[in-house]
Amino acid sequence: MLMPVDSRFKALSLLLLLLLPSLLLAQSPTVNQQNFNKSDGFELSTFDDSLAITWDSPEGKAYLELQFIPRQGNNAAAPLIREIGIDGIAALEGVDPNYLFWVGERDLELRDGWEIFFDRVPTRPYSVEKGYLIPDSVTVSSKGGRATIEIDGLNSTNFSGSLAFILYHDSPFVHMEARVATNRSATAFLYHVGLAKPNTSRHRIEWIDSMGESHSDAILEGTADVYQTRYRSMALSSNNGSLAISPFPHQYLYPLDFADNFGYNWAGDEYLDMIDGFAWGVRQPPIGDRRFVPWVNAQPGSLQKLGVLLFVSKNSGLENLEVVKRYTRNDSFKPLDGYKTLSSHYHHEHSLDFIEQQEDQRTNGIPVGLEDPDFIQFFKRMGVDMVHMAEFHNSRTPGMDTRERLSQIKIMHEEFQRLSTDDFLLMPGEEPNVHLGSHWLSLFPKPVNWVLNRNNDQPFEQEIDGLGTVYHVGNSDDVLRLFEKENGLAWTAHPRVKGSTGFPDNYNQTDFFKSDIFLGGAWKAMPADYSRDMLGWRVLDLEDDMANWGNHKYILGEVDIFKIYEDYELFGTMNINYLKLDTIPKYEDGWQTVLDALSSGSFFVSTGEVLIPKFSVAGKESGETISQGSGNNFVTLNANLEWTYPLSYMEIVSGDGSNIYREHIDLSDTREFSERSLEHSLDLSNRKWVRIEVWDIARNGAFTQPVWIE
Fold first, then answer.
1. Fold (topology level) of 340-608
2. Which of 152, 237, 242, 390 could make a disulfide contact with 431, Cβ separation 3.0–4.6 Å?
3. What is the CATH number assigned to the segment(s) 610-710?
4. 559 by DSSP, 3-state: which?
5. Taking Cα atoms as reference points, which of 73, 76, 64, 77 lies closest to residue 28?
6. Rounded to an integer, what distance in angstroms lies between the CA atom of residue 459 and that of residue 449?
7. In the predicted model, is pLDDT for residue 242 greater than 60?
8. 605-630 confidence digits (pLDDT tens)
9. pLDDT at position 182
């Protein structure tokens, strides 16, 4: 029997209403090219359901083709990346990016709110959610040697925003970046990225393991595994080429106490039961080292930029990974003429290990296994010339009696002398947590015997047979007296966070802070926040505040981790100090020149990828003073820069004793692996100091110490 016309019309209307979401999803997103300029050298082609863009890469003309074919009925959405390759030949086809968000709670009541390390996020309830991309609109823009494709419509339960692909002329990688924000309060989070590949026939997964051995395996069915790799990178190879995924080398590793290789890559099927089929990618360890695990800040409304780099090549994955390694200089630090590298603040506790192993092995000699410790070889391989340790970092040390304390120090001094060579210096140091209010680092220019307590009947200084002069310090006045007498340097460890929350601010009027023996503070990328285009703002802000306080104080880089072994992921946690020194001091001669370089501000700090070999203002280098007696406030800033990844910007920071001024210098015209001499005119009217910092597209950077102005 025929249905009445009115009824058929109503049924058809209902069917159209039910199908409307699918019909809308099936429409291709609009592509806005208003800010795309062909003269920038990129070739853009748009089609009904896709777009393709080419750029210059070291191997030829690289291209990326994206397609926008959503789920229709029972048919899954097509992979976003239809092809990626070189010179018209696809290295890989059908690759679908996936972002997974681990969403937890930040304890804002503990310590100092968002400036926190002592948090244990994974001990509280958290969720894992997937970001789904339903393209709404696409914007393609270009500027100079860079082009950006931004796709709106990336959403998870708590985050929303866009997915962007940034291309750089002369670079072999695509910078893929989720740009998302949350309105959720007190959020700490992590992100994992996976590249799903439905068809993996005749493909191979390739990586370098944590001991430096290369691997190339056929793709087999099996649940995804975590891989402990070097260089935090992994590649998938086809017969025509490969695609490697690599995170930003320093920013991606949120701060932890230990630098174990927690497995920053993964590959296999059904990752976390959230990504269909085979995929490979990068990950952050949710439970970290099971101590303090702070994750990453996501303040409400802040735009988090979650980047990875996709290296495309005609060559195999292992050959592609050799290219990836170049950007971190093989996870090492480049030698510079006129400089020596210094790394500071390690709680490896070699001295205590030595004592314990001597007891266990019942020997008075060098224990078996400690003849040539891993950590020494690790530093040498990385190009570190000098290391400042922080031994005896435990609760017993401050109250230890004189005899036991001196026996430990004796082992430290003897061992550090044994492990130092003509091309490597291991310097004694400690991180006391008594007498000053904060945690602080000690560095003397030679071995010094000192005890961290002083009983009422003990003298400050005494002579002990076989040891010479021994000092007892029981308060801040004793600390100042000791360091003045022995020409030592002290500074605040991890300022304004951890056990130094509120410091050095809370003692900036004291005699020891104002004295020449107090250097200032130490820089580390902590806390983590991916809405920033830089690292370590906590301590750079302190540098500026100290300069405005009127004190000539400086900031050196610190690493602040426990233990170092051959398979550790050390580089991602590190920074380096480039000191103006011609030679590495010999242990037996002392290392006064190291303290002189630090106390005079004759150094710069770097993550390793960006270097500032030369910096001066009006002919004066960092730590030196400009005299403006002539009344001429206009001066010239000169800087020589070197870098691996393309640069992002330079910032000129200055202060007048109350306010801080920032001048942003856009460096988006730079290309990878280059150098530049900059000359910039400055008006330093009423200024008291000036410094610079430089950052690249992967959030790696370098900064100088201030030039002072009188």
1. TIM Barrel (3.20.20)
2. 390
3. 2.60.40.770
4. coil
5. 77
6. 14
7. yes
8. 999 999 999 999 999 999 999 998 65
9. 98
CATH number of the structural domain 94-326: 2.70.98
Dist. CA 268–CA 317, nearest whole Å: 16
pLDDT digits (tens, 9 = 90+) for 399-425: 999 999 999 999 999 999 999 999 999
User: Are 475 and 461 spatial neighbours (Cβ–Cβ below 8 Å)?
Assistant: no
pLDDT of residue 24: 40
Q: What is the pLDDT of residue 21?
A: 43
DSSP 220-233: ---B-EEE-BSTT-
Could you give the dihedral angle defined by the CA atoms of residues 567, 571, 573 and 578, in that order, rounded to the nearest 10 degrees? 140
C-beta atoms surrounding 619 within 10 Å: 11
pLDDT of 124-169, one tens digit each?
Answer: 999 999 999 999 999 999 999 999 999 999 999 999 999 999 999 9
Helix residue ranges per DSSP H, 126-236: none
Q: Is 536 exposed, middle or buried (0-12, 13-18, 19+ CB in 10 A)?
A: buried
The domain ranges of the chain are: 94-326, 340-608, 610-710
The 10 Å Cβ neighbour count of residue 67 is 19
Quick one: which of 705, 463, 486 has its CA closest to 592? 486
Q: What is the mean pLDDT of residues 27-50?
A: 94
In 11-159, beta strands by DSSP E = 30-32, 43-46, 50-57, 60-67, 81-86, 89-105, 127-133, 137-143, 146-155
Neighbouring residues of 1: CB distance < 8 A, sequence distance ≥ 6: none
Q: pLDDT for 327-350, tens place per residue?
A: 999 999 999 999 999 999 999 999
Cβ–Cβ < 8 Å for 561, 343 = no
Cis-peptide, bond into residue 122, ω within 30° of zero: no
pLDDT at residue 23, as a whole number:
41
Residue 288, exposed/middle/buried by CB under 10 A (0-12, 13-18, 19+)?
buried
